[in-house]
Protein backbone atom coordinates (compact mmCIF):
# COMPACT_ATOMS: atom_id res chain seq x y z
CA UNK A 1 0.00 0.00 0.00
CA UNK A 2 1.17 3.56 -0.80
CA UNK A 3 0.29 6.64 1.29
CA UNK A 4 -1.22 9.56 -0.63
CA UNK A 5 -1.83 12.70 1.44
CA UNK A 6 -3.61 11.24 4.52
CA UNK A 7 -5.07 8.24 2.70
CA UNK A 8 -3.58 4.87 1.87
CA UNK A 9 -4.17 3.47 -1.60
CA UNK A 10 -3.99 -0.27 -2.04
CA UNK A 11 -1.77 -1.46 -4.88
CA UNK A 12 -4.73 -3.38 -6.30
CA UNK A 13 -6.99 -0.29 -6.29
CA UNK A 14 -6.72 -0.02 -10.06
CA UNK A 15 -5.71 2.77 -12.39
CA UNK A 16 -8.29 5.21 -10.97
CA UNK A 17 -7.63 4.46 -7.29
CA UNK A 18 -5.38 7.45 -6.62
CA UNK A 19 -7.75 10.02 -8.08
CA UNK A 20 -10.66 8.54 -6.14
CA UNK A 21 -8.75 8.57 -2.85
CA UNK A 22 -7.60 12.16 -3.34
CA UNK A 23 -11.08 13.24 -4.36
CA UNK A 24 -12.49 11.75 -1.13
CA UNK A 25 -9.98 13.90 0.76
CA UNK A 26 -11.24 17.03 -0.96
CA UNK A 27 -8.12 17.44 -3.11
CA UNK A 28 -9.76 17.33 -6.53
CA UNK A 29 -9.21 18.06 -9.30
CA UNK A 30 -6.22 15.75 -9.58
CA UNK A 31 -3.80 16.43 -12.42
CA UNK A 32 -1.21 14.10 -13.89
CA UNK A 33 1.86 14.99 -15.95
CA UNK A 34 4.22 12.93 -18.08
CA UNK A 35 6.64 13.33 -20.97
CA UNK A 36 7.60 11.67 -24.23
CA UNK A 37 10.95 11.82 -25.99
CA UNK A 38 13.27 12.06 -23.01
CA UNK A 39 15.50 9.31 -24.36
CA UNK A 40 15.39 10.33 -28.02
CA UNK A 41 18.41 11.95 -29.67
CA UNK A 42 16.30 13.80 -32.24
CA UNK A 43 13.08 15.77 -32.15
CA UNK A 44 11.36 17.64 -29.35
CA UNK A 45 10.65 16.78 -25.76
CA UNK A 46 6.87 16.77 -25.33
CA UNK A 47 5.19 17.09 -21.93
CA UNK A 48 1.47 16.82 -21.28
CA UNK A 49 -0.83 17.30 -18.30
CA UNK A 50 -4.34 15.96 -17.87
CA UNK A 51 -7.27 16.07 -15.47
CA UNK A 52 -9.89 13.35 -15.93
CA UNK A 53 -13.53 13.85 -14.99
CA UNK A 54 -14.91 12.29 -11.82
CA UNK A 55 -16.52 8.88 -11.87
CA UNK A 56 -17.37 6.85 -14.94
CA UNK A 57 -17.45 9.98 -17.14
CA UNK A 58 -13.68 10.15 -16.86
CA UNK A 59 -12.93 6.48 -17.44
CA UNK A 60 -11.17 5.74 -20.72
CA UNK A 61 -11.38 2.24 -22.23
CA UNK A 62 -7.94 0.63 -22.75
CA UNK A 63 -6.14 3.50 -20.99
CA UNK A 64 -2.62 2.47 -19.98
CA UNK A 65 0.96 3.66 -20.10
CA UNK A 66 1.39 4.84 -23.69
CA UNK A 67 4.48 2.64 -24.15
CA UNK A 68 2.36 -0.46 -23.54
CA UNK A 69 -0.19 0.36 -26.27
CA UNK A 70 0.10 -0.42 -29.96
CA UNK A 71 0.07 2.65 -32.23
CA UNK A 72 -3.54 2.10 -33.44
CA UNK A 73 -4.84 1.59 -29.89
CA UNK A 74 -2.83 4.58 -28.67
CA UNK A 75 -4.38 6.81 -31.33
CA UNK A 76 -7.86 5.63 -30.39
CA UNK A 77 -7.23 6.14 -26.67
CA UNK A 78 -5.85 9.62 -27.41
CA UNK A 79 -9.09 10.65 -29.10
CA UNK A 80 -11.13 9.46 -26.12
CA UNK A 81 -8.81 11.12 -23.58
CA UNK A 82 -8.96 14.56 -25.20
CA UNK A 83 -12.73 14.24 -25.59
CA UNK A 84 -13.43 13.14 -22.01
CA UNK A 85 -10.75 15.00 -20.05
CA UNK A 86 -11.89 17.86 -17.85
CA UNK A 87 -8.71 19.66 -18.92
CA UNK A 88 -5.50 18.86 -20.77
CA UNK A 89 -2.47 20.68 -22.13
CA UNK A 90 0.71 19.91 -24.02
CA UNK A 91 4.11 21.61 -24.20
CA UNK A 92 6.54 21.01 -27.09
CA UNK A 93 10.19 21.81 -26.34
CA UNK A 94 12.45 21.91 -29.44
CA UNK A 95 15.76 20.08 -29.55
CA UNK A 96 17.81 23.27 -29.41
CA UNK A 97 16.23 24.22 -26.09
CA UNK A 98 16.99 20.78 -24.68
CA UNK A 99 20.60 21.28 -25.77
CA UNK A 100 20.81 24.78 -24.34
CA UNK A 101 19.22 24.19 -20.93
CA UNK A 102 19.84 20.50 -20.32
CA UNK A 103 17.38 17.62 -20.44
CA UNK A 104 16.36 17.39 -16.79
CA UNK A 105 15.93 21.12 -16.25
CA UNK A 106 13.91 21.32 -19.45
CA UNK A 107 11.77 18.33 -18.47
CA UNK A 108 10.85 19.75 -15.05
CA UNK A 109 10.16 23.23 -16.40
CA UNK A 110 7.97 21.81 -19.17
CA UNK A 111 5.96 19.84 -16.60
CA UNK A 112 5.47 23.05 -14.63
CA UNK A 113 4.36 24.88 -17.78
CA UNK A 114 1.96 22.12 -18.81
CA UNK A 115 0.32 22.08 -15.39
CA UNK A 116 0.06 25.88 -15.32
CA UNK A 117 -1.61 25.84 -18.74
CA UNK A 118 -4.51 23.63 -17.58
CA UNK A 119 -7.87 25.37 -17.63
CA UNK A 120 -8.57 23.93 -14.16
CA UNK A 121 -6.37 24.66 -11.16
CA UNK A 122 -5.37 21.30 -9.68
CA UNK A 123 -5.94 20.52 -6.03
CA UNK A 124 -3.25 17.83 -6.19
CA UNK A 125 -0.60 16.91 -8.77
CA UNK A 126 0.80 13.49 -9.61
CA UNK A 127 3.91 13.41 -11.80
CA UNK A 128 5.71 10.52 -13.43
CA UNK A 129 9.18 9.98 -12.02
CA UNK A 130 10.27 13.46 -11.00
CA UNK A 131 9.01 15.90 -8.35
CA UNK A 132 8.08 19.37 -9.58
CA UNK A 133 8.53 22.16 -7.06
CA UNK A 134 6.80 25.53 -7.02
CA UNK A 135 3.33 24.44 -8.13
CA UNK A 136 1.50 26.04 -5.21
CA UNK A 137 -0.45 22.82 -4.56
CA UNK A 138 0.56 19.51 -2.97
CA UNK A 139 1.89 16.78 -5.19
CA UNK A 140 3.63 13.43 -5.41
CA UNK A 141 6.19 12.05 -7.84
CA UNK A 142 5.54 8.42 -8.63
CA UNK A 143 7.92 5.85 -10.05
CA UNK A 144 6.21 4.24 -13.06
CA UNK A 145 3.25 6.50 -12.40
CA UNK A 146 2.09 6.09 -15.99
CA UNK A 147 1.35 2.44 -15.16
CA UNK A 148 -0.37 3.17 -11.85
CA UNK A 149 -2.42 6.37 -12.15
CA UNK A 150 -5.07 7.18 -14.74
CA UNK A 151 -4.35 10.91 -15.10
CA UNK A 152 -0.62 10.25 -15.59
CA UNK A 153 -1.39 7.51 -18.12
CA UNK A 154 -3.68 9.96 -19.93
CA UNK A 155 -0.90 12.56 -20.00
CA UNK A 156 1.53 9.94 -21.31
CA UNK A 157 -0.81 9.10 -24.19
CA UNK A 158 -1.29 12.77 -25.10
CA UNK A 159 2.46 13.40 -25.02
CA UNK A 160 3.36 10.27 -26.99
CA UNK A 161 0.76 10.70 -29.75
CA UNK A 162 1.60 14.40 -30.10
CA UNK A 163 5.29 13.64 -30.41
CA UNK A 164 4.83 10.73 -32.81
CA UNK A 165 2.83 12.97 -35.13
CA UNK A 166 5.56 15.60 -35.00
CA UNK A 167 8.22 13.01 -35.82
CA UNK A 168 6.18 11.75 -38.76
CA UNK A 169 6.05 15.31 -40.10
CA UNK A 170 9.82 15.56 -39.61
CA UNK A 171 10.23 12.35 -41.59
CA UNK A 172 8.56 14.08 -44.54
CA UNK A 173 11.06 16.94 -44.27
CA UNK A 174 14.20 14.80 -43.67
CA UNK A 175 13.30 11.34 -45.04
CA UNK A 176 16.83 10.01 -44.99
CA UNK A 177 16.75 9.54 -41.21
CA UNK A 178 13.47 7.52 -41.20
CA UNK A 179 12.03 9.43 -38.24
CA UNK A 180 8.60 7.93 -38.92
CA UNK A 181 9.90 4.50 -37.89
CA UNK A 182 12.09 5.11 -34.82
CA UNK A 183 10.67 8.53 -33.79
CA UNK A 184 14.14 9.92 -33.08
CA UNK A 185 15.25 7.21 -30.66
CA UNK A 186 18.62 5.53 -31.10
CA UNK A 187 18.43 2.42 -33.25
CA UNK A 188 21.14 0.83 -35.42
CA UNK A 189 19.41 2.18 -38.53
CA UNK A 190 19.15 5.68 -37.07
CA UNK A 191 22.80 5.62 -36.07
CA UNK A 192 23.79 4.52 -39.57
CA UNK A 193 21.88 7.46 -41.05
CA UNK A 194 23.56 9.81 -38.59
CA UNK A 195 26.98 8.49 -39.57
CA UNK A 196 26.17 8.84 -43.26
CA UNK A 197 24.52 12.26 -43.29
CA UNK A 198 25.52 13.91 -40.03
CA UNK A 199 22.88 15.46 -37.74
CA UNK A 200 19.78 17.18 -39.04
CA UNK A 201 18.62 20.51 -37.55
CA UNK A 202 16.36 18.58 -35.15
CA UNK A 203 19.04 16.33 -33.68
CA UNK A 204 20.11 17.01 -30.10
CA UNK A 205 23.74 17.96 -30.34
CA UNK A 206 24.31 17.59 -26.59
CA UNK A 207 23.69 13.84 -26.84
CA UNK A 208 26.86 11.75 -26.97
CA UNK A 209 26.05 9.76 -30.10
CA UNK A 210 25.19 12.93 -32.05
CA UNK A 211 28.23 14.85 -30.75
CA UNK A 212 30.47 11.93 -31.67
CA UNK A 213 29.22 11.92 -35.26
CA UNK A 214 29.72 15.69 -35.50
CA UNK A 215 33.29 15.25 -34.31
CA UNK A 216 33.93 12.57 -36.91
CA UNK A 217 32.17 14.13 -39.91
CA UNK A 218 31.83 17.82 -39.14
CA UNK A 219 28.49 19.67 -39.30
CA UNK A 220 27.11 17.85 -42.37
CA UNK A 221 23.32 18.13 -42.63
CA UNK A 222 20.98 16.18 -44.89
CA UNK A 223 19.00 18.66 -46.99
CA UNK A 224 15.38 19.29 -46.09
CA UNK A 225 12.87 18.22 -48.73
CA UNK A 226 9.57 19.81 -49.70
Describe the structure.
There is one protein chain. The chain is α/β, with parallel strands linked by helices and 226 residues long. The chain folds into 2 domains: 2-169, 2-Layer Sandwich (Nucleotidyltransferase, domain 5); 173-217. Helices cover 40% and strands 17% of the residues. The chain contains 8 helices and 7 strands. The strands form 2 sheets. Strands 5-4-3-6-7 form a 5-stranded mixed beta sheet, with helices on both faces. The protein has a two-stranded antiparallel sheet with strand order 1-2. Strand 3 (30-36) and strand 4 form a beta hairpin. Helix 2 crosses helix 5 (150-173). The radius of gyration is 19 Å and the shape is elongated. Residues 218-226 have low confidence and may be disordered.
Q: What does the overall shape look like?
A: elongated
CATH superfamily of the largest domain: Ribonuclease H-like superfamily/Ribonuclease H
Share of β-strand residues: 15-25%
Residue share in helices?
40-55%
Total beta strand runs: 7
Radius of gyration from the alpha-carbon trace, in angstroms:
19 Å
CATH fold-level name of the largest domain: Nucleotidyltransferase, domain 5
Write the H/E string, N to C. EEHEEHEHHEEHHHH
Class inferred from helices and paired strands: alpha/beta
Major sheet attributes: 5 strands, mixed
How far from one another are the termini?
54 Å
- What's the total helix number? 8
Poorly predicted sequence stretches spanning 5 or more consecutive residues: 218-226
Spatial ordering of strands, largest sheet: 5-4-3-6-7
**Chain-averaged pLDDT:** 91
Amino acid sequence: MIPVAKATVRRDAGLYGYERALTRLGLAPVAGADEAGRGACAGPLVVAAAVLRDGRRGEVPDLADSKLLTPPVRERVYEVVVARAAAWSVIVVPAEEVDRRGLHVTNIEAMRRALARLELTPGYVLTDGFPVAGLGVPGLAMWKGDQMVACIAAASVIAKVTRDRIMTDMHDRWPGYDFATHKGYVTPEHQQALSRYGPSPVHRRSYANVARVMGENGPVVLEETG
